[in-house]
Design a protein that fits this description.
This protein is an alpha/beta fold. The chain is 29% helix and 18% strand. It has a six-stranded parallel β-sheet. Bound molecules: beta-D-glucopyranose. Beta-D-glucopyranose binds next to loops.
């Protein structure tokens, strides 16, 4: 997983420097207990109580702040900390830069569909550059939670269902955020979150209970975090959820045993927003004081916003319940981070930086490139797409010209007025004389639920479709239907959009649907009745232009899904790397009462509608001549396979060549397929390329019976192909 090509080096915030340690030692000896606790307190500044805020900073009760956008305010807070507090310790400014700071990129789930770590490293670096110019030191991202439940609104923020791809993209994003060439010479530290297994919330409801085996934790949910920390991330954010009965904020197993004892990681652990206080609602602490006690003993270094640490930690130390050495350890990590960030030397941000850095043409261009590459063509029957420029198009739907919704749920400092909608993209591409009719047709969601929609105009939409050659519908979710605390039980088109779609399809005109959403939707009817579907996600400020470029063939779509699209909500969770079970669906099953008893639904397929790795282009690729170059591989060796990929169509295009394995017999059960390699290639029409992929045998292990990571000798199947369900098959043996 080499993501270092063509990129500025990244800071390693995990490298201990003896000079910094000496400065930390010196400061620690001079700090009062209250000042130490202050470093463990993070607040969202309340500007309505400005005097109180300033007094808290002046007296050293605040160590860091979050989500402040104005440079003047940041500098003023910093001035009070540096010039007016007793020890002059600067604040760290943390911000949720989830997919861009001002230049808003596609949501991370969309970005992951590029399967392009280098591109995402550039996008993360651009976001960090803008954030640095805005005074940010600390980015609360990447979100590296593996997510297999599209009901969960935060699936939007991550890299989808797979830990291997998740690792590669986590590394890329950390490297981008922590790049060494950011505006004003500033440094930024990344904060992989939410540690851990947050994406496994029961029923897909945000914050809900998580209960999983330690094996699944270690094999599926931890690896992207480990990869992010190995890439030099200097902080981590613990999650809201409980794990097997112990909320993350009070979970010494994940915060101390795994992070410190097993991984020997020296960075800062930050709680999520109010999560320490929420130990009370979880029912493991009677009050804030007990919550503070449990959290600090478990290994939280910073309390984001619950006030439990600032209100109670000093007392807990004085009462002998918390050893001061534990507080010192936490404060050491915070101070070390501050020294590494360079904010003792350069606490201020030059307000003039933003003018040149934000929304610079290169970043707008990069946002366009990422949007173009993250859209996934789900269907294109009869090559309806691309459209010819002279086609008379009816542009229909509530998302045709809606700027805010394309920003997604974490828009940071993004401005709706800077978003190019699909309509704007069409106009920019086709010019003012474009043969377009535009009808909104309905709202995204009706008022009071779907039933009352004052914008309903299905007749207008039908009329426009009839008068056009092709109807292009832009349908889907609003930005706030996904993201934090926004889970859905129904994943179809909201409001009257399905009715609108069915009415337009009934005209018999060719229909293209562009889907804008923050998650995989349930698109069964659409997949049956609509010839062309483009999944455009929430594509950021250049979204509309990217859609136009793809629909008119300026750009050949190349995105591949990273999260499965279920056929129905009842299939969830549906993901490719499931286990075989004792009665696999593809085998005969056990016949009892004349029925094959096996793992399946009576009334639905076990396959997703569109699976992991899937995506079409305007050309076709053929795979041939798979050669397992290493049919026998030493246990510390490397598996090498080659395959020929040919562009058999008439356009240049990009293919994501994917390698999957199955460990046939293990001491514990193994998934039916696991991604273990991929590469993205561009091929001209008729061009073919021999692609070689290497998998170190060390990648083929898992946590065995003794719960340690083992690589077992034995036979493996291997597939190389275009997605998790197709591909040429081979075999190899790992030798003892
Ligand atoms: C979210 C985090 C975010 C934090 C600060 C929380 O509610 O879960 O992802 O970083 O707020 O805004």
């Amino acid at each position: 997983m080499d993501t270092t090509m063509n990129a500025a080096p990244a800071y390693d915030f995990t490298a201990i420097d003896s000079e910094i340690e000496a400065r930390v030692d010196d400061l620690l000896t001079r700090m009062t207990l209250e000042e130490k606790v202050g470093q463990m307190n993070q607040v969202s500044p309340n500007w309505d109580a400005r005097e109180e805020l300033e007094a808290a900073i002046r007296s050293g009760q605040v160590g860091s702040v979050l989500n402040v956008w104005e440079v003047a305010k940041i500098n003023e807070m910093q001035r009070i900390a540096v010039e007016e507090s007793r020890l002059g310790i600067p604040l760290i400014v943390g911000t949720d830069v989830i997919h861009g700071y001002r230049t808003i990129f596609p949501i991370p789930l969309a970005e992951s569909c590029t399967w392009d770590p280098d591109l995402l490293e550039q996008a993360a670096r651009a976001a960090a550059d803008e954030a640095a110019a805005g005074g940010t030191d600390w980015i609360f991202a990447p979100m590296v939670d593996v997510a297999r439940d599209p009901r969960w609104g935060r699936i939007a923020e991550g890299a989808g269902e797979d830990p291997f791809l998740g690792r590669a993209l986590a590394v890329a994003r950390v490297r981008g955020f922590q790049a060494t060439d950011l505006a004003g010479g500033k440094r930024i530290v990344a904060c992989p979150k939410h540690y851990v297994a947050y994406g496994l919330a029961e029923g897909g409801k945000d914050y809900n209970t998580v209960d999983l085996s330690e094996r699944a934790l270690r094999d599926v949910y931890l690896p992207p975090f480990k990869a992010a920390l190995d890439a030099g991330a200097g902080s981590i954010m613990s999650s809201f959820n409980e794990i097997a009965g112990v909320p993350a904020s009070a979970n010494a197993f994940i915060l101390r045993q795994i992070l410190r004892d097993e991984w020997d990681w020296p960075g800062v652990v930050l709680s999520d927003y109010d999560a320490i206080g929420e130990l009370i609602q979880h029912g493991v602490a009677a009050d804030h004081k007990e919550a503070a006690l449990k959290a600090v003993l478990a290994g939280e270094d910073i309390d984001m916003m619950s006030q439990a640490f600032p209100d109670h930690l000093a007392d807990l130390v004085r009462e002998g319940k918390v050893p001061e050495a534990l507080v010192d350890e936490a404060v050491r990590r915070v101070l070390r981070l501050k020294f590494m960030l360079g904010i003792f030397e350069n606490p201020y941000t030059d307000p003039a930086l933003q003018a040149d850095v934000l929304l610079q043409p290169a970043y707008r261009e990069l946002a366009l490139r990422v949007a173009q590459k993250s859209a996934v063509l789900l269907k294109n029957e009869g090559s309806l797409l691309p459209l010819a420029p002279e086609t008379k198009v009816a542009l229909i739907g509530p998302l045709v010209d809606d700027q805010p919704e394309l920003l997604g749920s974490w828009a940071c400092d993004g401005k709706p007025e800077e978003v190019e909608t699909v309509l704007a993209g069409f106009k920019a591409l086709l010019g003012p004389k474009a043969a377009l009719t535009v009808v909104k047709g309905c709202a995204i969601e009706g008022r009071d639920g779907a039933d009352d929609d004052p914008e309903l105009d299905i007749e207008g939409a039908v009329k426009a479709a009839r008068a056009a050659d092709v109807a292009v519908l832009v349908l889907g979710e609003s930005a706030m239907m996904s993201g934090e605390a926004h889970s859905r039980a129904y994943l179809g088109l909201p409001g009257k959009q399905q009715a609108l779609l069915e009415a337009v399809v009934a005209t018999g005109k060719p229909v293209v649907v562009v889907v804008i959403a923050g998650r995989p939707l349930v698109l069964g009817w659409m997949a049956q009745h609509v010839p062309a579907i483009l999944m455009a996600w929430q594509g950021g400020i250049r979204s509309g232009r990217a859609v136009a470029d793809i629909l008119y063939g300026e750009v050949n779509p190349s995105g591949r899904l990273t999260a499965s699209f279920p056929r129905t909500e009842g299939q969830i969770p549906v993901y490719y790397a499931h286990k075989s079970t004792g009665r696999p669906v593809n085998e005969r099953g056990v016949i009892q009462f004349n029925r094959a008893h096996k793992v399946k639904y009576l009334d639905e397929s076990d396959l997703p509608l569109y699976g992991f790795g899937y995506g079409l282009t305007y050309t076709t690729f053929e795979y041939a001549d798979l050669a397992v170059e290493t049919p026998e591989v030493p246990i510390d060796g490397i598996v090498t396979v080659s395959v020929t990929v040919r562009n058999t169509g008439e356009r240049a295009g990009d293919e994501v060549v994917q390698l999957y394995v199955q460990d046939l017999i293990g001491e514990v059960t193994r998934p039916v397929r696991e991604l273990k390699g991929f590469c993205k290639i561009s091929l001209q029409p008729g061009e073919s390329r021999r692609v070689t992929l290497n998998v170190p045998a060390s990648e083929l292990g898992f946590h065995g019976l003794a719960m340690s990571y083992i690589v077992e000798p034995g036979e493996f199947k291997i597939w190389v192909g275009p997605n998790a369900y197709e591909g040429l098959e081979g075999r190899f043996v790992l030798e003892a």
